[in-house]
């Protein structure tokens, strides 16, 4: 695993144990996991599962930095599957990264395996149009994508609705 991705996991694990501990949006069945990260446009892109969200994340690469965004500023990145709007995040031990929240809260997931499986599907789908993974990623409408957590929860005998 790349050091930047390992640091991302360690920083968010600490956030989970400190700042987010005990908050009602936290799903105690989930843990921090970086999923499907790969080099992309000289940076690293992938999906981050936390006990409170599933997000697309951009990390700086060895030779490519990321703009530090003000709280009211967003950056739009074009991925093979479309445009995604990112917010800036600066953590002292991590540095500057950009994050695109996809699902929050994640309270409908019955277990971490379900959240991780969805994150893997998201990671494949984000890069699906690049040709190499187009056949591996399922074709999914926005409605189906947004109801994914409910399907995972209901497959475990819990949950009824989609992402709220």
Question: What does this protein structure show overall?
Answer:
The protein is an alpha+beta fold. It has one domain: [NiFe]-hydrogenase assembly chaperone, HybE (Yope Regulator, Chain: A), CATH 3.30.1460.40. It has four helices and six strands, in the order αββββββααα. The protein has helices at 3-17, 112-126, 142-146, 148-155, and strands at 33-40, 43-49, 54-59, 74-79, 82-91, 95-103. The protein has a six-stranded antiparallel β-sheet. β5 and β6 form a beta hairpin. Residues 133-144 and 153-164 have low confidence and may be disordered.
Write out the CATH superfamily name.
[NiFe]-hydrogenase assembly chaperone, HybE
How would you classify the quaternary structure? single chain
Number of helices: 4
Number of domains: 1
Q: Which sequence of SSEs, written as H and E, runs from N to C?
A: HEEEEEEHHH
What class, by secondary structure content? alpha+beta
Which features would summarize this protein structure in a list?
164 residues; alpha+beta; Yope Regulator, Chain: A; six-stranded antiparallel sheet; 6 strands; globular
């Amino acid at each position: 695993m790349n050091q930047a991705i390992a640091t991302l996991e360690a920083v968010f694990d600490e956030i989970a144990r400190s700042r987010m501990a005990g908050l009602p949006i936290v799903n105690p069945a989930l843990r921090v996991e970086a999923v499907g990260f790969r080099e992309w446009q000289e940076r690293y892109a992938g999906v981050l599962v936390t006990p409170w969200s599933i997000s697309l994340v951009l990390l700086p690469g060895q030779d490519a930095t990321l703009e530090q965004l003000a709280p009211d500023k967003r950056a739009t990145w074009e991925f093979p599957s479309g445009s995604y709007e990112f917010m800036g995040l600066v953590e002292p031990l991590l540095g500057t990264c950009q994050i695109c929240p996809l699902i929050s809260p994640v309270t409908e997931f019955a277990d971490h395996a379900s959240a991780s499986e969805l994150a893997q599907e998201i990671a494949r789908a984000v890069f699906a149009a690049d040709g190499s993974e187009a056949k591996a990623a399922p074709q999914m409408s926005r409605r189906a994508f947004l109801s994914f957590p409910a399907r995972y929860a209901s497959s475990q005998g819990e949950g009824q609705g989609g992402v709220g």
